Amino acid sequence: MIRLLSWAIPLIHGPVTKAFHGSFAWVMGFVAWEPLSIIRKVNTMNILHVSCSPRGQSSESYRLSQKVIGHLLQRDPNAELINRVVGAGGIAHVDENYAISQQSLEDVSQEGSFIQSETLINELESADVLVISTPMHNFTVPSALKVWIDHVARVRRTFNVGAQGKTPMLRDRPVFVAIASGGRFSGERARQPDFLTPYLKAVLNMIGLHDLNFFTVEGTALGPDAIAQARTATDQALHTYFHHHEAQ
Ligand SMILES: Cc1cc2nc3c(=O)[nH]c(=O)nc-3n(C[C@H](O)[C@H](O)[C@H](O)COP(=O)(O)O)c2cc1C
């Protein structure tokens, strides 16, 4: 209907000059379409996928993240997916001015790491759902993920510091963390400490992300049977999670 209207308006205004005719139609077209495009944008779910394995798309954590994203897309086929690949070391460590700013009352530079930080925070802010795929490295997050965190956990931007300690500044949204590890770090058969999940919980909480959902494929170094078993158990857990949330 609105499309018809924006086509019909130039015809109705036959006597007007061609130039005015064109611009009037353009303006009316804009007026008619702009609210629609805003509604479309508001309704589109944005998924930000931060992938952190040095093995890229061949990695187990990436594979698991695709399962998570598959479920999300099944729920909302029009969702937009933004891939932020950090695993191959695409993000530089934070620079000197950024480090000084973190311990100062104001930012001492709006360049270098500050720009990178702003880009990554904007990406995070426009995401309705965050998916992080990551391996366990030496009982915790790989350094590539730590670099991403160092850029998005920024004082005065994503958290504040006051007498009560640190207060988050981001709005909450669902976060899915897809983890792969060579050995097991959870359950009765765990033979190593886990500094990965408690660390991610603490740092994501600090900036305002509390709706955290962890899925793991543990024991990738324990042979094909162990991997197959772990994948099946995790697929089942994912199915149960999404089935349960769809029913709500
Ligand atoms: C530098 C490095 C450190 C690792 N440290 C651990 C570890 O502490 N615990 C563990 O279970 N696996 C460890 N692994 C093995 C990886 O977690 C395992 O290979 C995992 O499946 C990799 O996931 P990806 O395929 O998503 O990269 C380590 C691997 C690397 C490269």
TrEMBL record:
Known cofactor(s): FMN
Q: Does the keyword Flavoprotein apply?
A: yes
Identify the residues that bind FMN: S53, S59, E60, S61
Q: Which SUPFAM superfamilies match?
A: Flavoproteins
Report the co-factor binding details. Answer: Binds 1 FMN per subunit.
Domain Flavodoxin-like fold, by residue range, is 45-239
Instruction: Give the E.C. number(s).
Output: 1.6.5.-, 1.7.1.17
**Reaction(s) this enzyme catalyzes, per UniProt:** 2 a quinone + NADH + H(+) = 2 a 1,4-benzosemiquinone + NAD(+); N,N-dimethyl-1,4-phenylenediamine + anthranilate + 2 NAD(+) = 2-(4-dimethylaminophenyl)diazenylbenzoate + 2 NADH + 2 H(+)
Tell me which UniProt keywords the record has, alphabetically: Flavoprotein, FMN, NAD, Oxidoreductase
Question: Quaternary form?
Answer: Homodimer.
- Function according to Swiss-Prot or TrEMBL: Also exhibits azoreductase activity. Catalyzes the reductive cleavage of the azo bond in aromatic azo compounds to the corresponding amines.
Protein family membership: Belongs to the azoreductase type 1 family.
Name by which UniProt lists this protein = FMN dependent NADH:quinone oxidoreductase
Q: Which organism is this protein's natural source?
A: Pseudomonas nunensis
Q: Which gene encodes it?
A: azoR
